[in-house]
Design a protein that fits this description.
This protein is of the alpha+beta class and 674 residues long. It is built from 19 helices and 26 strands. 36% of the residues lie in helices and 21% in strands.
Length: 674
């Protein structure tokens, strides 16, 4: 493996060219090494003359990567630690990038490291807390083309060291090497605070260009310049790819300058002529896809939707590959992408086979669901798809449906309309801030965060022509809701999103033996009994076996009876199982929350919400008062309440009823924050 040093002003090093022994030191022809060193020294001199160190990445960075330098793909993002969806963001991201699945095949655990050296997931807690307290942090995904030839840990440390020199500050970071894909890469998270405790601000051109230049520079210093053959092979490999490529990017750049692509004249320069021929080959391939056309011999035009189509095809290819990898042991022939924009998309119910990130930089998630219709679905999730604390996991049973886009915005729209109605049809930030009751805000949300989200919404409505900018705010029409619904219909479903309902956190193995009501019980009580002779997917076959075993379990418990041709569940099965579940839950939770309270018919119990507990029958909320507690079925919004008042219905005399809510400390969800 290679040993890497930061790219400083030290010229006392040797570099092995690719194909020879890897590392900073190596052997080779003296003339070749001298030639390469001269090239690299010119880069150093160029950087000195451009005053990179003094200007720093915070201010500016402009430098071109040589054509034969090592290629490194860098993706970067600045993440603010504020807003309703930011809570736990950095913690969840660190947890995901450091999961066991990313480790190298010969490693016991993932390679996690920071400025203090190699560390473990357990030792990251203090660092993560520091990140959470900052205004923002930076995320990078670094993918060298020849990552297999690099010691990724040493490479990343050298890159961070160079970044510190450019930014003129020490950096706190977390890095994890990922070996679980064909393209080895590193996740790097940099704290948004400099060594003086101030917010670290890095200019866009350094993040966009300078960091990538440094990544390529250090890889080149370690592995040597790419050969002409490697460069040409890399370019020609993209000619027939059904995704957006660097060749396409170059073609689009030509169009911006010349309005069309003129490739008639041969070019004397050898490499430029090679690129011209490659571009002609690519255009001919795109023509077979109806994405380009030759308007005159040698003169081409691209379809206006060319880039969009190629990016969508690339994404689709990635999805198909992911589904094949995750479903290789499933007896499913039909793989479908769940599309919320499709007006004919039906709801599906099934088991979660896999949950992952489709975009690791932006934490965009997906599910793969094996459904009861014997099909497998790729389900893209938005930030609205799952309810916090009710997120699905592999093995969970879920129902996936389409939610109309305008429904998600209705709460903010009603708030905007109400503020405007009190101010002659004008909405503005100051009025909204004054009207907020901080005791009714969702936990962890400040008034400024809350209003900021409304401002984003009204600015989006302004772009669509629904509201108009006024001198001191926005003019809001009285028929705001109708206008929004009209736009949603015109959009053809583009604003729709996926909604995931968690039917059961338990997998079927645990459900079939549970001493509690389960999703399987609910399915069978509604008439969906096992069909052992049907030709089905692995999931459906497993589900039917689980139903059959569950029926036998219920029969042994006295909650189902045999007839001449089947076993039938007794009508009162749920009441008996629910009582057993709650008795066991009270015992399990008493060591943490105190004594289970007994509430008689007609009595009330008021207490603080202490969290959500997922039981086999569904989610329940723990309400605690002093040294007593009760467990009640969850209702939407309960987890955000500081105090909950419960009332035992007079018609029930059991110890474990499904309690009726007398009141919450918030009247309606849409009033949150007012």
């Amino acid at each position: 493996m290679s040993t890497i040093i930061p790219f400083e002003d030290d010229d006392s090093f040797e570099i092995a060219l690719k194909g020879r022994k890897k590392g900073i030191s190596g052997t080779g022809k003296a003339g070749t090494r001298k030639s390469f060193l001269k090239t690299m020294m010119r880069l150093v001199d160029a950087n000195k003359s451009s005053n990179v160190r003094k200007q720093s990445g915070r201010n500016s960075f402009i430098s071109d990567t040589p054509r034969n330098a090592q290629r490194v793909v860098v993706k970067a993002r600045v993440v603010k630690n504020s807003g309703p969806f930011s809570k736990g963001s950095i913690r969840n991201h660190v947890s995901y990038i450091s999961r066991d699945a990313v480790k190298n095949h010969n490693e016991v655990s993932p390679i996690i490291y920071s400025e203090t050296g190699i560390t473990t997931k357990e030792n990251l807690e203090e660092t993560v807390r520091e990140f959470e307290s900052d205004r923002h942090h930076f995320r990078f995904i670094i993918s060298p083309e020849n990552a297999h030839d690099l010691n990724l840990t040493e490479y990343t440390k050298a890159l961070v060291k160079q970044m510190e020199l450019d930014l003129d500050t020490k950096l706190t970071f977390i890095a994890v090497n990922h070996y679980n894909t064909d393209n080895l890469h590193v996740h790097l998270i940099v704290r948004g605070v400099d060594d003086s405790g101030k917010n670290l601000v890095i200019k866009r051109d350094y993040i966009s260009n300078g960091f990538r230049f440094r990544a390529s520079q250090i890889a080149t210093k370690t592995l040597g310049l790419r050969t002409e053959r490697e460069i040409r092979n890399g370019i020609t490999s993209e000619v027939k790819k059904t995704r957006f490529t660097q060749i396409d990017r170059d073609l689009l750049a030509k169009i911006k300058v010349e309005k069309c692509i003129d490739l008639r004249k041969p070019i004397e320069n050898g490499f430029s002529e090679f690129k011209r021929n490659v571009q002609i080959q690519r255009l001919r391939f795109l023509k077979t896809m109806q994405l380009s056309r030759e308007i005159k011999p040698g003169i081409w035009k691209l379809n206006e939707e060319c880039e969009k189509t190629l990016r969508e095809l690339g994404l689709r290819n990635d999805i198909i590959k992911t589904m094949h990898e995750q479903l290789k042991n499933e007896r499913i022939t039909e793989h479908i992408i769940f599309d919320p924009a499709d007006s004919h998309q039906r709801n599906i119910t099934g088991v979660v086979i896999e949950k992952g990130l489709s975009n690791e930089l932006y934490d965009e998630k997906y599910l793969i669901v094996s459904a009861t219709d014997n099909r497998a679905y790729y389900v893209p999730l938005s930030k609205y798809s799952e309810t916090p604390a009710f997120e699905a996991r592999p093995g969970s049973i879920v129902t996936v449906s389409v939610k109309r886009g305008e429904s998600q915005q209705r709460i903010a729209d009603e708030n905007i309309l109400e503020i405007a109605s009190r101010n002659n049809g004008i909405y503005n930030r100051e009025l909204h801030l004054k009207s907020i009751n901080t005791h009714r805000l969702p936990q962890g949300v400040t008034p400024e965060n809350y209003v900021e989200n409304h401002l984003k919404r009204i600015e989006a409505l302004e772009k669509r022509g629904v509201v108009e900018r006024a001198e001191n705010g926005w003019s809001v029409p009285e028929n705001l809701k109708e206008k929004i619904i009209g736009i949603a219909h015109e959009s053809g479903g583009k604003n729709n999103f996926v909604q995931v309902k968690l039917e059961s956190m338990q997998d079927m193995h645990h459900q079939k033996v549970a001493n509690a009501p389960t999703w399987l019980d609910r399915e069978m009580s509604e008439g969906r009994l096992p069909r052992p002779d049907a030709l089905q997917s692995s999931f459906c076959s497993e589900m039917d076996r689980a139903k059959s075993e569950r029926l036998q379990k219920l029969h042994a418990m006295g909650l189902a009876e045999k007839t001449h041709d089947c076993i039938r569940i007794k009508p009162d099965y749920h009441e008996h199982l629910y009582k057993r579940q709650m008795e066991q839950a009270a015992k399990d939770l008493s060591s943490r929350f105190g004594k289970p309270a007994r509430i008689n018919p007609g009595e009330t119990f008021s207490g603080a919400c202490k969290g959500i507990h997922h039981l086999p029958s569904g989610p329940h909320v723990i309400v605690k008062r002093g040294n007593e507690f009760v467990i009640v079925p969850h209702q939407r919004g309960m987890e955000r309440m500081n105090q909950i008042r419960l009332e035992m219905p007079r018609t029930q005399d059991t110890q474990y009823p499904e309690l009726k809510f007398a009141s919450l400390d918030t009247s309606k969800e849409r009033d949150l924050g007012r």
